[in-house]
Amino acid sequence: MLTQDEETYVRELLAGLNAYPAYYAHMAPANSAGPSEPDLSPPGKADPAGIRRRIDAGEWAPGAALPSIAALAAHYGVSRATVAKAVHRLAGAGLLEVVPQWGVFRTGDTADSGG
């Protein structure tokens, strides 16, 4: 049970998330049904074309941080090395920027990467 101050903090925190929909967009597929209905669909394949489709669909705005390599690996059900290879291929094509110690960010470039 939460105290009144804790309830107020949580309510304000959750209300503030609406200000950053692009940042939290990556959470939507896994959490769209809510906690009572987990997503039991099989994991997808982590290939550059799959991540590229998500970029093209506008899931991450230019300049937005992508989920971590570990989070993407968990989403696709593959190893972090597999996701890292896909991310680095897309970075080589100019669609993503990998910043050591900070993360992976979407660039504004939408040139065809040959997927």
Main sheet? 2 strands, antiparallel
Strand-pairing-aware structural class: mainly alpha
Mean pLDDT over the full residue set: 76
Instruction: Give the strand content.
Output: 5-15%
Query: What is the CATH C-level name?
Result: Mainly Alpha
Give the tally of structural domains.
Answer: 1
- Low-confidence region ranges: none
How much helix, percentage-wise, in residues?
A: 40-55%
The CATH architecture can be given as Orthogonal Bundle
Q: Report the order of strands and helices.
A: HHHHHHEE
If you compute it from the alpha carbons, what radius of gyration comes out, rounded to the nearest whole angstrom? 16 Å
CATH topology: Arc Repressor Mutant, subunit A
CATH superfamily: Winged helix-like DNA-binding domain superfamily/Winged helix DNA-binding domain
Distance between the termini: 50 Å
Written account of the structure:
The protein is elongated and about 50 Å long. The model has no long low-confidence stretch (mean pLDDT 76). Strands 1-2 form a two-stranded antiparallel sheet. The N and C termini lie far apart (50 Å). The chain has helices at residues 4-16, 21-24, 28-31, 48-56, 69-76, 80-92; strands spanning 96-99, 103-106. The chain has 6 helices and 2 strands; from the N terminus they run H-H-H-H-H-H-E-E.
